[in-house]
Design a protein that fits this description.
By secondary structure, this protein is mainly β. It has one domain. It has no helices and 11 strands. It has a 9-stranded mixed beta sheet, with no helix packed on it. Strand 9 and strand 10 form a beta hairpin. The protein starts with 10 loop residues before the first strand and ends in a 28-residue tail after the last strand.
Length: 145
């Protein structure tokens, strides 16, 4: 459910209606999602989970500087996993409505989102881990093939 680097943390599965926050965890360099009330508990997303961010999604640039919002209307995203053929790397990513994909670790901390919809039963079942990822730059669709 949560990226391999978060396996040592207390975690729970996301539920429809949950408000979650992009965060870092003290014992790891991985970013993921947590509950605003329990920042030490990772909230794990399944591939296909749909999120609505309160504001335009923002990524962190090099050295943690906030980059421009990905787009003024970039508020809806679907959780997915990428680079599953590359062990030892983070796989969790968000896909925006315009098709851009970026790893969760690139998210600026403190962004709030609401879980709109969970995947249908069995969707994403081919993955053993449903995780939260790392990247400084958005991943282009051409890089996924």
């Amino acid at each position: 459910m949560c990226d391999y680097s978060l396996e040592s943390l207390v975690s729970r599965e996301a539920e429809v209606g949950d408000v979650i926050v992009s965060c870092s965890f003290k014992t790891t360099t991985t970013r993921g999602f947590c509950s605003p009330e329990r920042p030490e508990v990772a909230v794990c997303l399944k591939p296909g989970t749909e999120l609505a961010f309160e504001g335009p999604v923002q990524t962190s640039g090099i050295w943690g500087y906030v980059e421009q919002a990905l787009s003024a209307d970039a508020r809806l995203a679907r959780f997915r996993q990428i680079d599953m053929d590359k062990p030892g790397t983070h796989h969790d990513a968000l896909e925006l409505a315009d098709g851009r994909i970026f790893k969760v670790n690139a998210l600026r901390e403190g962004q709030r989102a609401t879980v709109l919809q969970l995947p249908k039963d069995g969707e994403g079942a081919e993955h053993h881990h449903h995780h939260t990822v790392v990247a400084a730059e958005p991943v282009r669709e051409s890089e996924l093939t």
